[in-house]
Amino acid sequence: MPPSRPAQKSLQHRTISSAVAEELRRRIVDGEFRSGFQLRQDALAAEFGVSRIPVREALMQLEAEGLVKIHPHRGAIVSELSTEEIDELFELRAWLEPRLLKASAPRLTEADYKRLNEILQEYSSELRAMHISRWGELNTEFHMVLYQHAKQPRSLAIVANLLQESDRHTRLQLSLTQGMERAASEHAELLKLCTEGRISAACSLLKTHIEGAGKSLRSYLEEHQKVSAQK
C-alpha cells in the first residue's frame, strides 16, 4: 500500500527541518550566531524559503541539543558556549564523582544494579532513535544512582547541581562529537567493574570518562571557532 499524503507531508517536514537545524547548528557552533542572539521564526522561514513549521521543529531540536533556549515571550535565544565553563564543570565533576563512587559502590544493591541496567538499555534505545533530549536525563540518572549510597549529602548535592549544569554540554558532546557509542561503552564497562567489586578501576575509568567528554567538546568548539575566524 502506498504511503498516505499526510505521511509524505510529515516526512517532508522532517527532512526540511533537519536541513534547517543543520545550517543553524553550523552558524551557532562556528560563532556566526553568538550567545544571546534571537532566532526569529518569521525571518528564518523567509530566509530558507520554508514555512514556520519546519523552522519551529528545527529550533526545538536545537533546544534539545542545548544550543538554544526557547523562552515563552522572547522566542529562541542562542545559548552561551563557553570553553571556560566547560573546563570548570568537567574538572569539578572529575574531581568529585570518583570520590562519591568509591564510597557508594560497595553499598549498591541488586535493585540498584537492576535499575542501572535498565537505564543502559533505555540509553541505547534512545541513542538509536536519536532522542537527544533524553540523553542528558539518562546520563544524570545513571550517575546519581551510582553515587546515591555515598553518605556524603553535601558532595552529592553539589554533583547533582553540576550534572544539571552540564546537561546541555553532555548532549552537545554526544551529538556534535559522535561520542554516543563511546559513552554507552564506557557506562557499560563502569557498571561491569562495580558489579565485579573492582572499585578502584571503576573510579579511574569514571575520571577518564568525564575528562574525555569535556576535552572532546572543548576541542570541537575550538576547532570550529578557529575555522570560522579564518573565513
- DSSP summary, beta strand count: 3
State the major sheet. 3 strands, antiparallel
SSE order, one letter for each helix or strand: HEHHEEHHHHHHH
CATH topology of the largest domain: Four Helix Bundle (Hemerythrin (Met), subunit A)
What proportion strand? under 5%
Derived from helix and strand composition plus strand pairing, the structural class reads: mainly alpha
- State the distance separating the first and last CA atoms: 50 Å
Kindly report the average pLDDT value.
86
CATH superfamily of the largest domain, by name, is GntR ligand-binding domain-like
Q: Into how many domains do the coordinates divide? A: 2
Query: Which bin fits the share of residues in helices?
Result: over 70%
Low-pLDDT segments:
1-11
CATH architecture of the largest domain: Up-down Bundle
Number of helices: 10
Strand order of the largest sheet: 1-3-2
Q: What is the CA-atom radius of gyration, in angstroms? A: 20 Å
Shape: elongated
**CATH domain class of the largest domain:** Mainly Alpha
What does this structure look like?
Keywords: DNA-binding, Transcription, Transcription regulation. It comes from Microvirga vignae. GO terms for molecular function: DNA binding; DNA-binding transcription factor activity. Pfam families: FCD (PF07729), GntR (PF00392). Helix 6 (132-147) crosses helix 8. The chain has 231 residues and is mainly α. It has 2 domains: 5-78, Orthogonal Bundle (Arc Repressor Mutant, subunit A), CATH 1.10.10.10; 83-230, GntR ligand-binding domain-like (Four Helix Bundle (Hemerythrin (Met), subunit A)). It has a 3-stranded antiparallel sheet. It has 10 helices and 3 strands; from the N terminus they run H-E-H-H-E-E-H-H-H-H-H-H-H. Strand 2 and strand 3 form a beta hairpin.
